[in-house]
Amino acid sequence: DAGVTQSPTHLIKTRGQHVTLRCSPISGHKSVSWYQQVLGQGPQFIFQYYEKEERGRGNFPDRFSARQFPNYSSELNVNALLLGDSALYLCASSLDIREFSPLHFGNGTRLTVT
Amino acid sequence: QKEVEQNSGPLSVPEGAIASLNCTYSDRVSQSFFWYRQYSGKSPELIMSIYSNGDKEDGRFTAQLNKASQYVSLLIRDSQPSDSATYLCAVASGSARQLTFGSGTQLTVLP
Predict the structure, then answer these.
(1) CB contact under 8 A, B88 and A43
(2) Which residues in chain B touch residue A108, judged by CB atoms under 8 angstroms apart?
(3) d(CA A27, CA A71)
(4) Is B98's CB within 8 Å of A56's CB?
């Protein structure tokens, strides 16, 4: 069975540009979450989507946005990139949004902003 | 602000020994607790989940939860060099439905 898939795996952008990251959840999983992991730190929550609706948002600026499609895949968009946006962006899926539903992470997209 | 604290390490243990990883959390209403393993350059991998006070065992791994003390731990018995990784403690709370992660403990198992 395919796990969570993310694309692209690596990305290099310059300051001020925008970026779109994509995620396909595990088959049957209806919830997708996005996390940012800066080197040496644990992942930090950005968004959670369930049934195409935003169900949670972390402490990130409005430059960050996301959406979920009818097939439960998701996109994370970041506008006006800053050097500090350089990180590993992780997508995770879960069956639903019950608190006990474990998250399964994809391999991530490593974004470098120069 | 919900916080999850872990000893950053690095923690080194000899092969075959027991590795003990600890985590404390600040939000008393937290209900779900997870341990993830992350190899360098890879994504986090779920290895244990625990929801009730006490111990939960899965192979060489044992998770321990004490909600009164707001403490969760992970024991790795018969540690192997392949266990060398960063271990992330994660906590889910109430209506938030998102995970709050600690900064991770780097474990090295010496052959």
Answers:
(1) yes
(2) 43
(3) 10
(4) yes
Q: What is the DSSP letter of B50?
A: E
The pair of three-digit structure tokens given for residue B99, joined into one six-digit string: 């995970």
Q: Using CA atoms, how far apart are residues A76 and B1, in angstroms rounded to an integer?
A: 25
B54 residue type, one letter? G
Calculate the dihedral angle through the C-alpha atoms of B6, B12, B16, B17, rounding to the nearest 10 degrees: -60
Mean pLDDT of A13-23: 98
Residue A103 amino acid letter: L
**Chain A residues close to B99, C-beta within 8 Å:** 33, 35, 43, 45, 103
Distance CA B55, CA B83 (A): 20
Note the pLDDT tens digit of each residue in B24-80.
Answer: 999 888 888 999 999 998 999 999 999 999 999 999 999 999 999 999 999 999 999
Which amino acid does the sequence have at A8?
P
